[in-house]
Amino acid sequence: MPKPKIVLAYSGGLDTSVAIPWLRENKSADVVAVTVDVGQPVDLERVRRKAEASGATRAYVADARREFAEEFIAPALRANALYEGVYPLSTALARPLIARHLVRVARKEGAQYVAHGCTGKGNDQVRFDLSTTGLAPELEVIAPAREWSMTREDEIGFAQAHGVPVDATKASPYSTDENLWGRSVECGILEDPSVEPPEEAFGWTRAPSEGPDEPEYVTISFERGTPTGLNGRSAPLHELIAELNRTAGTHGVGRIDHLESRVVGIKSREVYECPAAVVLIAAHQALEALVLPRDVLDYKRSVEQRYSQLIYDGLWFTPLKSALDAFVTATQERVSGEVAVKLYKGSARVTGRRSENALYQTALATYSSGDQYRRQMAEGFIYVWGLPARTWAAVGARSAPAVVSPTRTRARR
Ligand code: ARG
Q: Which of 97, 102, 159, 314 has CB atoms 3.0–4.6 Å from 164's, for a disulfide?
């Protein structure tokens, strides 16, 4: 019988490096490593060599930055996706993409299993497992870190015993995850939600108070709800996002301190840096406010909330996601134009918006000359609009007993 084959999502860190010999030993299998570049600071070639040095029979690397931006970030942005109103879902959005790459390689390699380095306490295991199932129900998922009970020290020992290269650099107290859409930070002192995150926890943003003393304006161009240009220059989305992360991060924009409700029932303290996401969502919302009717905006908000939750919950490859996408896409037909955002000491404020499709009409809105609004029609409108409330109030006044004092009520019984 041929050896089973496992396709492992490989980051190059300690957990996934240890997972390679662990899987070979405990599952008697060959391990194929897959590393996906979603914009994290990674030297793909170095990671590939490390995978092989750790015992992978084959190591794939993929630059998926464009794919991530266009197929995962863009739909989330069009839905203004923020989990619990604050988290732009950076980590959550990368998981289905990585799972899709695992599935592709598994099919190419004829593998029966995929594996990932997530522990049993987080959301990411849910996202990897469900994304894999949603794409390839025939594949089985293995999560070594859910099975082993090694401490960090144990892992280092295991690595050394199995010839896995261990980085000499001093381990940071924080656990981080980075991609184009943001950086997440957990562990260490952050586990005390009453304590302000120390400066050292941040990697992408300056402290707001340390931002430049002069504000900086950025202009985002949108076409059908998708950013296409920055400051008048058109750019592919993944490049635009990377540049905006640097610019907005310099001004201390995008820090998020969130007491988060995980899918697995745990409350956790999460710190994020998402400069581009914060700016782009604010700009996109501002443009929508200019071009979409009130009822569409209002209904879309409920869709956005559901959409954000399903991304968080790992349900990207599901029929509900596709159906909500169809709704969101339909709403974006006219969401084209430019939005100016002022970056200053931690804040990103929309200062101007413009669109050929603006529903804002000066002739209707103005309080100066040129007003075309037919104000005499307002009275009739209010009469009809208020008829239900008027009727209700009138009927209530007729049938309600006159004000009765508690003493009298009791006396009557
Ligand atoms: N709590 C965030 C989320 O669920 C961040 C998770 C970070 N993941 C990680 N492997 N460090 O999306």
A: 159
Cβ atoms 220, 280 nearer than 8 A: yes
Centroid of ligand 1 to alpha carbon of 127 (angstroms): 10
Secondary structure (DSSP) of 289-357: HHHS-HHHHHHHHHHHHHHHHHHHTT-SSSHHHHHHHHHHHHHTTT--EEEEEEEETTEEEEEEEE-TT
Which residues have CB under 8 Å from 21's CB, separation 6+?
A: 54, 55, 158, 162, 163, 164
**Element holding 183 (H helix, E strand):** strand 182-186
332 lines ligand 1 (CB under 6 A): no
Q: Where are the domains of the chain?
A: 5-161, 175-292+334-360
**Strand, coil or helix: 320:** helix
CATH 3.40.50.620, domain 5-161, yes or no: yes
- What distance in Å separates the CA atoms of residue 202 and residue 174, rounded to the nearest whole number? 10
- Reference 225, options 180, 176, 165, 286; nearest CA is 286
Q: Which residues pair with 113 in a beta bridge?
A: 6, 140
**Is residue 313 in contact with ligand 1, taking CB distance under 6 Å?**
no
Confidence at residue 407, expressed as pLDDT on a 0 to 100 scale: 58
Which atom from ligand 1 is nearest to the alpha carbon of 122?
4
> Is the CB–ligand 1 distance for residue 40 below 6 Å?
no
Residue 409: how many other CB atoms lie within 10 Å: 10
And the tokens for 90? 């950076």
Q: Is 124 in the pocket of ligand 1 (CB under 6 A)?
A: yes
pLDDT in tens, 120-147: 999 999 999 999 999 999 999 999 999 9
Per the CB < 8 A criterion, the answer to whether 55 and 166 are in contact is no
How do residues 369-378 score in pLDDT, each as one tens digit?
Answer: 999 999 999 9
Positions in the chain short of pLDDT 70: 168-170, 401-413
Residue 241 is encoded by which pair of tokens? 């996002």
Q: What angle do CA 269, 270, 276 make, to 5 degrees?
A: 155
Reading the block at residue 185, the tokens are 């930070």
Q: Which amino acid is at 52?
A: E
- Tell how far the Cα of 84 is from the centroid of ligand 1, in angstroms: 14
Per-residue confidence (pLDDT) for residue 219, from 0 to 100: 98
The tokens for 91 are: 């980590």
Domain 175-292+334-360 sits in CATH 3.90.550.10:
no
At 139, phi and psi to the nearest 5?
A: -85, 150
Tokens 């000359």, residue located:
369
Look at residue 126 and give its three-state secondary structure: helix
- Say what the pLDDT of residue 172 is: 85
Active site residue 175: yes
